[in-house]
Structures are given as C-alpha cells and as structure tokens.
Amino acid sequence: MTTRWLTPEEQRAWRAYIAGYLLLEDAIDRQLQQEAGMPHAYYSILANLSEAPERRLRMTDLAERLKATRSRLTYAVTRLEKDGLVRREDCEWDRRGSVAVLTDEGMATLENAAPGHVDTVRSVLFDRLTPEQVGQLEEIFTQVARGLQGDGGDAAAEDLPWRRRSSPCSGTP
Amino acid sequence: MTTRWLTPEEQRAWRAYIAGYLLLEDAIDRQLQQEAGMPHAYYSILANLSEAPERRLRMTDLAERLKATRSRLTYAVTRLEKDGLVRREDCEWDRRGSVAVLTDEGMATLENAAPGHVDTVRSVLFDRLTPEQVGQLEEIFTQVARGLQGDGGDAAAEDLPWRRRSSPCSGTP
DNA sequence: GGGGCTTGGTTCAAGTTTGAAACAAACCTA
DNA sequence: TAGGTTTGTTTCAAACTTGAACCAAGCCCC
C-alpha cells in the first residue's frame, strides 16, 4: 500500500512539536544541571521517590513510572547513590529485587531544587498557555501515552516489550 | 518571593506531557534505529538537507534548524559522512565555513526510510488525535518554541546564547 | 595594518544512553 | 524436585551528548 503522508496541517504540527520539545527539554535540562547538578531525568527519579510511600520504590517500578529502560535507571541510581541522594536496599520478600530509597540528603536536594525547576517550567511553558491549552496539552499527551503503553495492544505498542511491567511493591507483598 | 507551584491542572498536564513525549520519542527512535540504522536526530539531518536548495546547508544553519548544539552536529555529520550519506564541503565565500551536502546515497536512504517513519508518526500520534487537536498541538508548541528562541528576550531565553544564530548561506553570499 | 573582539567549526574528556548479554532468584510443571 | 522458563537487575561495549577549550578566519577601528 502506498504511504499516507502527513497532511500540511499535520506537518506543521509535527515540526512545531519537534522544535518546541527540543527547546523545552533543553531549557529544563540546562536549568537543572546548573542549579542542581543533574539532568531532568535524574531529578525525576528524586521526585518520584519523594512521592512514593516511605520514599522507596523498586527499580522496575521506578523505571516504569519514569518511562526509562532498566539499564538507564541502574546507571542513574548508581550515580545518585554516589552522591548520597539515594540508597539501595534489598527487597525483603523477593531476593532478586532491589529498592531505591530517597535519603534525607536526597530529599533536601530535591526541595532545594524544586522552586527553580517549577519557575522554569512555568516561564517556559505554562506562562505561555491559556487554561484551555493546558487542558488540551493534558488531553493530547494522555491519549498518546495511553496508546503507547496501555495494554491497548495495537501495532505501535508491540515494540515496547519491557516497558509494560509493573509490580506493586512498596508496602507488603 | 515564595514559589508559585503548579496548579493541579498544570501538574496533570505536565506529567502527561512528560510521559507522552518520552514514550513517543522512544517509539520513533526505535523504529528509525531498526529500519534505518540511525536515531531520530540523524534522520532529521537528512530530512532537513533534502529540503534545502541544492541539498546543502551550512553547519550553523543546520544546527539552528535542528535546535542542536554545534558540537552535536559535528559529531553526527562525521558519522553520516562515514556512512556516505552526507558530504562536507568548504564554504565558498567564507573560508571558516563548512557545508553539509546530502549525497545521492543519503537521499536514497532517506526516501527509503521515510514511509516507515511516517507510518510510525501516524500510528503513534496523529491517528489518535482529532483535527482540532492537531491544530492545538501546533499552536501550543509554536508558542513554546517562539518564546524559547524568538528574540522575545525574556528571562528564559537568556540561557540559550548560541542557539539563536542564523546566516542564510545556501545560495549566494 | 596590527591588536583585539566576534564568529564558524572542531576537538577533547567526562557523562549519559542504548541494546544485548550475563546472572540469579522465582516460578512452573512434569 | 529437577529442569526449564520467566522475571528483576546488573554489566559491558559501543554510540551519543555535553560544555568547555581551542583554532582559524572575518571584522573593527584606532
């Protein structure tokens, strides 16, 4: 079958999106690197842990939430561990597992970095959008994410074998 | 002044956006890596060159369009050059300059990869959006990009010193 | 017309990401 | 309960990215 190319509207949207997200990610990364000494992805690790019960999450769980590969997370947590912001513990009831725990120092670092981060997100994104647009943004990307990971199982999702796992594991088995 | 945190709506939008774009970029990268042997950023280099007059663009120009750093582009073009998809030439009227040219082989590779790429973009993004949402997406990210690079010069843009350059240089001086 | 600043591009080291193994514990199931 | 598969995590090499130098060539201007 012959390719269904993008319509002019779709092309414009696609290009705008690419340019926008590259600049956006860049601005965020730079700000965090400067003020917190870590890239966005690492900040997200701290942020995610801080919201988890007991500030702890199993590696696979964390990877799932971050939409990151396991090996990426391993590397990142190792680095954060060296910095004393995160600690690794063994999973009680599953000797294979390992759990990342946010240390007090990690929490402090996070709280320290948060205001600057939020300011950036605001000035770069939300200050430029109307309330309706905020809703539209949520709607659009929720749909995209659902399609890509939700067990909706169409062609596009087939390529994401390992990104679908989950295993509630913060409290009791 | 105390931090203006994100509203619940903004938080939801921000999280949805993060998850969505990570999954999206991931799907795109994987598809291109598989079928064309290169990441999205490299594909974009070929695509941009293919649309330029004479299929050639000065390095800085190309970097500007790609929203990439110069050093990143240098590395990428070197790789593509090794693969024979791009060639470097000296800029005629500015002995400092160097120009990236899409080779015939590069064009062929691009044309070969394009259908699969478009299919992915469709299935992952546009097939899930209504026409109105396509318009909203364009609008939102156009605003973001303009704010971040446009010479609108507010605080957020201060951090992007080198990303603003431009120097029309494809045709005559 | 010789400093001195700017611009275009590359280089280099350090950090990060990727995907494909490798490993080990857990879970079947015959 | 031994053997095979699945699941959780790490390891490893190769690829990529970053930011800070660095080197030239243009530009200014006295």
Automatic annotation (TrEMBL), chains A, B:
Pfam families from the UniProt entry: MarR_2
Region span, Disordered: 150-173
One MF annotation (Gene Ontology) recorded for this entry: DNA-binding transcription factor activity
PROSITE patterns tied to this protein: HTH_MARR_2
Domain HTH marR-type, first and last residues per copy: 1-146
Domain of life of the native organism: Bacteria
InterPro entries hit by this protein: HTH_MarR-typ, MarR/SlyA-like, WH-like_DNA-bd_sf, WH_DNA-bd_sf
Any one biological process term the GO annotation gives: response to stress
PANTHER family with a match to the protein in the record: MARR FAMILY REGULATORY PROTEIN, TRANSCRIPTIONAL REGULATOR, MARR FAMILY
The protein, known as: MarR family transcriptional regulator
